[in-house]
Write a structure and sequence with these properties.
homodimer; about 160 residues; alpha+beta; 5 helices; about 30% strand
Chain lengths: ~160, ~160
């Protein structure tokens, strides 16, 4: 910077990979807005963080931190599946996308999806897929997705 | 065995994990019945096999070999996703299920799904999920699955 230049403003919303310190910034509480997620001990969080981190670029969790409040306000993950079909192709699976109820309508969900799509593309995936409720279909269409199949589930517990 | 016992018959259909030698038993040709899958060189096959094998029990490909013909006649895969939600739960993702057109109606698809479900359950998953076309919904319902969400896809190529 030169004297007289306007100060460079730090962006209010920081889009980045999950860090182990994000547990204290409300990451688990954010996931609780999505589905069943009891509180997690620091030890369990660190163990799971290490398990996922050991996969490197093959399992990436994106978060958005509000630099004003210091809170994690949006997240989503993608993992890369290696296949034999499609000429030994790769597919990105997007999971667990959630935006804090207090910060919706600010395009934060789209920022998360773009981050995850860019990552999958850079890893050489030929497609990314995700499952969502019918009510979220329009959001993903705005992100460039099209409906294809149906999701089936079997619970063990 | 005691003298006089009837001979133990080897089962005609062997359900097991993929082996690197299965390329010569028609594994790729079987996948070609499912979707786009050009022929794969031995080197590419071995490289991808090693990549998937390095994940151990976290990415398992099931095959059924017809011991009479020596051909792979059914396959399906499951990989285990580690999550933070659901109390640091795990989810099994079933992919690329196909049964040879000549051997359909013999419950081979169900054998593959049961193998994959049993594996996911033994790995501590709280659920298994998969995406399928509407026309295959009834088959998966017979395997104990229920329809839940919709699948969205974005192709990069």
């Amino acid at each position: 910077m030169q004297p007289g230049d306007p100060p460079i403003e730090e962006p209010k919303f920081q889009v980045r990979r999950l860090q182990v310190s994000d547990k204290s910034k409300g990451f688990i509480e954010l996931l609780q807005q999505l589905t069943v997620c009891d509180s997690v001990s620091d030890k369990d969080f660190e163990d799971r963080f290490q398990e996922i981190s050991s996969l490197g670029d093959h399992h990436v969790i994106c978060v958005i931190e509000d630099k004003c409040s210091g809170k994690i306000i949006a997240t989503g993950s993608v993992f890369i599946e290696h296949k034999f079909l499609r000429n030994c192709g790769k597919v990105g699976h997007i999971e667990d996308v959630v935006v804090d109820t207090n910060t919706r309508g600010m395009q934060l969900g789209k920022k998360v999806i773009v981050f995850l799509m860019d990552h999958a593309c850079s890893m050489g995936c030929y497609k990314v897929i995700l499952d969502c409720s019918l009510e979220n279909k329009a959001f993903y269409e705005k992100c460039g997705f099209k409906q294809k199949e149906i999701q089936m589930v079997k619970y063990f517990v």
